[in-house]
User: What shape does this take?
Amino acid sequence: QVQLVESGGGLVQAGGSLRLSCAASELTVSSITMGWFRQAPGKEREFVARVRWNGITYADSVKGRFTISRDNAKNTMYLQMNSLKPEDTALYYCAAEFTGYGSTTEARSYKYWGQGTQVTVSS
Assistant: This one.
């Protein structure tokens, strides 16, 4: 059974950094499309970043501050978040395996999800 387990969230001051991890089981992170999404209270889940065979895409709001990567040996995906802002506060989810429908920047287009890890940025 596929499992995605996020970790690394926490409370940080504005300008600080966090690194989120998404450990996968029963799928190979290097061979599929994977992404990070986030959801703030009262808002819809929004795209943050995704990595696939043909490259990496970031949301404009995080470009230049966040970096998505994969460690094939550990079968884990990461999101390095620098220069954090209060508006980055959200529950962060990792997602895996593009269904082939819609866009890889849409939450509805992913088959598997983790449980989420909370990121809170104080001003």
